[in-house]
Automatic annotation (TrEMBL):
<dbReference type="InterPro" id="IPR017850">
    <property type="entry name" value="Alkaline_phosphatase_core_sf"/>
</dbReference>
<dbReference type="Pfam" id="PF00884">
    <property type="entry name" value="Sulfatase"/>
</dbReference>
<dbReference type="GO" id="GO:0004065">
    <property type="term" value="F:arylsulfatase activity"/>
</dbReference>
<dbReference type="InterPro" id="IPR050738">
    <property type="entry name" value="Sulfatase"/>
</dbReference>
<feature type="region of interest" description="Disordered">
    <location>
        <begin position="112"/>
        <end position="133"/>
    </location>
</feature>
<comment type="similarity">
    <text>Belongs to the sulfatase family.</text>
</comment>
<keyword id="KW-0378">Hydrolase</keyword>
<feature type="domain" description="Sulfatase N-terminal">
    <location>
        <begin position="5"/>
        <end position="413"/>
    </location>
</feature>
<protein>
    <submittedName>
        <fullName>Sulfatase-like hydrolase/transferase</fullName>
    </submittedName>
</protein>
<dbReference type="InterPro" id="IPR000917">
    <property type="entry name" value="Sulfatase_N"/>
</dbReference>
Length: 522
């Protein structure tokens, strides 16, 4: 056995915790993930550090809040100067691989808006018009732009890439994925027509719906299968070094296009709507205008990336297809762990299952993400199975994305880099700390760009504070788990509101940036 364990980290995209059987879902079939949960530790209270893809993946990789690592929203790459847990493992002799979605850099080439300069007088010349002159832009930050891969499928990414010395990327979602997958697909199609996208969808007689189409891509050519095949190939390579393999599936993120039998695997008629479905966000009068605007934008562009309200039948269909995509992932997890078993290294390999963030998926009549920090969006699965130290059970310790890197590094027998803010969730003395969630919001939802949200989770309560507003949210999740009674302005909850505000300030102070160390001592 290797002195240090191997790690396989399975990650999905935009999957809420309760869309797994081991988290109580009575319909979706996930026997392989459930098996790890039954033999290992299932974290009941694990939350994002930021409820959006790119920033939360940055938090997972660095063990730092997004306000510290600088990747505070989609569109800001993770700095190439950042130290990730993969960097640390690689430096300790690990073979490191990532197959699937990375999203450490921007996926769109849309130009940034000009910076807003305050005060009167002449503007400073570039680069002095920015307080931080070194911006994260240029060719070295363009390795995940989806359109560039469509144009040049055989691009070569300089390695290591954020600590990974083996890389096979998927960029995009559903059946609209580019990256290394692009060339793989083209090679297998030969002279056949590219079957991807709504324009090439199979007409199944059902009415068109936002984010839904029956893909023409067969199961064996779908991105989930590509990720699975590449993961197996990594494991089958002859190399005795301990390894880290991140298997990052682009699904079940919208659009909802699971292929073949997975499209019809679940009957929408069997899907129960969330209890909050009849308490729609659009009917509320206790939210600031910029939050309302987020959902208005979604209503205008329901086939884009913004949250939108939908009818019951459409949400049932989306949920059923979401389940189909999850079961396809679970089937591939079984094949990958079989490939691991064939190498004889199962007993020295820790298996982790997680997701980057959740989805409203019908909560308050809404789907997708952005906007409010409801439980389905911010609470995500974390399953940890260590065959050398099985600790079957459920952990109630409140965890956050910044805790993942320290937990993994400590299990590898490695100290955490200075400035990593999380803690080891598996430590016997792991504190049940309040969880702080950051969100820079959507700047275009407000004329002044002030759209940030800060959320605190602690002791069965959620509090969210909105930038530039005296409105907020406060929920007692123990008596109101579906978040339909906002206690922010309720005088009976005023004392608890004040205590939560104090805890939020205290947690922000405790999570200050300590990554820069003094060069001299006084």
């Amino acid at each position: 056995m290797n002195q240090r364990p191997n790690f396989i980290v399975f990650m999905t995209d935009q999957q809420r915790a309760d869309h797994l059987a081991c988290y109580g879902n009575p319909i979706v079939q996930t026997p392989n993930i459930d098996s790890f949960a039954q033999r290992g530790t299932r974290f009941e209270n694990f939350y994002v550090a930021n409820p959006i893809c790119q920033p939360n993946r940055a938090a997972l990789a660095t063990g730092q809040l997004t306000s510290v690592n600088g990747c505070r929203q989609n569109g800001i790459p993770l700095s190439l100067d950042s130290t990730t847990y993969a960097d640390v493992l690689r430096s300790a002799g690990y073979r490191t691989g990532l197959v699937g979605k990375a999203h450490f850099q921007n996926v769109s080439p849309v130009a940034a808006k000009p910076p807003v300069l305050r005060g009167d007088g002449s503007a400073p010349p570039e680069p002095f018009h920015l307080s931080r002159r070194r911006q994260r832009r240029g060719p070295e930050y363009e390795w995940e732009i989806r359109s560039l891969w469509a144009e040049t499928p055989d691009r070569e990414v300089p390695l290591p890439y954020y600590g990974f010395d083996h890389l096979r990327m998927c960029i995009g979602h559903g059946d609209q994925v580019e990256g290394h997958y692009t060339k793989w697909l083209k090679d297998r199609l030969g002279e056949a027509t590219d079957p991807r996208g709504r324009a090439n969808a199979i007409d199944d007689g059902l009415k068109d719906a936002p984010q839904i189409w029956r893909t023409s891509v067969p199961e064996e050519l779908y991105p989930t299968s590509y990720v699975g095949e590449e993961a197996c190939a990594f494991l089958e390579a002859e190399d005795d070094r301990p390894f880290l393999l991140v298997v990052s599936f682009p699904d079940p993120h919208h659009p909802f296009t699971p292929p073949g039998r997975y499209f019809d695997l679940y009957d929408p008629a069997d899907i129960e709507l969330p209890e909050s479905f009849d308490h729609p966000t659009w009917a509320r009068n206790d939210l600031p205008e910029h939050i309302k605007r987020v959902y208005e934008i979604g209503a205008e562009k329901p086939d884009a990336y913004w949250p939108f309200h939908s009818d019951a039948d459409s949400i049932r269909r989306m949920t059923a297809l979401n389940y189909g995509a999850i079961t396809m992932i679970d089937d591939w997890i079984g094949k990958i762990t079989d490939a691991l078993g064939a190498t004889g290294r199962s007993q020295e390999t820790i298996i982790v299952f997680m997701s980057d963030h959740g989805d409203y998926m019908g909560d308050h009549g809404t789907v997708l993400k952005h906007g409010l920090h409801t439980n389905g969006l911010i609470r995500v699965p974390l399953v940890w199975y260590d065959p050398t130290n099985p600790t079957a059970g459920v952990s109630a310790v409140q965890g956050n994305a910044i805790d993942f890197a320290p937990t993994l590094l400590q299990r590898a027998g490695l100290q955490c880099p200075a400035g990593m803010q999380g803690r080891d969730l598996l430590a016997a003395d792991a504190e049940d700390l309040p969880v702080l969630i950051e969100d820079s919001g959507l700047a275009f939802a407000s004329a002044d760009g002030r759209t940030a949200t800060r959320t605190l989770i602690h002791d069965g309560w959620r509090m969210s504070v909105f930038e530039g507003s005296d409105l907020g949210e406060l929920y007692d999740l123990q008596v109101d788990p579906h978040e339909v009674r906002n206690l922010w302005s309720d005088p009976t909850a005023a004392e608890h509101k004040a205590a939560m505000l104090h805890l939020m300030i205290d947690r922000q102070i405790g999570l200050r940036d300590t990554s820069l160390i003094p060069t001299h001592q006084a």
